[in-house]
Amino acid sequence: MDEKNLDRIDELLESTSAENRIKFDLSDIESTENSLEDRFGVAPEEDEMPAPTIDVAPIAEEPVETTEPAPVAAPVMKIVDETTTVISDDTPVKAEEPKKKKTPFSVLQIVLIAIVSIATLWTVMYTVDHTLAAQGYSPAFSVSSQSYDDGSVSYKCLGYKVQFMYDSNDNLTQKCVPFWKDGPNDIRYNQGLLFEVHE
Q: To 5 degrees, how large is the angle CA 172–CA 139–CA 153?
């Protein structure tokens, strides 16, 4: 009910005289158990608890003067921000600082990843060229090649050399060596046993 309806009820009660008001006689009120059994012939179940008796106070016959009802204050609702953790009336709520955006990798990590990637790539290239040379095929990742008069061939690759050498019985020997070492063709060339063929 709103406040207007309550005011209207108060006005009606003031205007009604004490003689016209409804009066309850407590002697006429019967308990529920007896009235059901007498009227309908139905006995209450034994399991059920007997109905409690209600004491009703008689209404005062003298009119009660009512004054203007005091205004009822509406309940105060406090709106709480779900992102805050501290709720207090006297301390201000601190806003969370924006988080700094983290980069997925630091500069050092990027440098390390680059070095490891280059080393892995070089290892794969060396393994492929060494396997091909062991089968008698020319390396796939050679930068330049040099042919000699007896059919021997030297291939320069990134950081290593692959050299095929034919001996006096025409047997093929292959060798993978680092770029700073001399392979079998380099040794024979320095001794003057091999001569370069210019194509």
A: 45
The CA-to-CA distance between both ends of the chain, in Å, stands at 111
Cα–Cα distance between 162 and 126 in angstroms, integer? 10
How many Å apart are CA 157 and CA 133, to the nearest integer?
A: 12
Q: What are 67's two structure tokens?
A: 């004054």
Integer Cα distance of 183 and 165 in angstroms:
10
Q: Looking at 91-136, which runs of residues are DSSP E strands?
A: none
d(CA 76, CA 91): 19
pLDDT number for residue 87? 52
User: How far apart are alpha carbons 161 and 182 in whole angstroms?
Assistant: 9
- Residue 116 has what pLDDT? 96
152 with 172: CB under 8 angstroms? no
The mean pLDDT values, 10 residues at a time, for the chain of 199 residues are 75 73 64 58 56 61 62 63 56 66 80 94 92 88 86 88 82 84 85 77
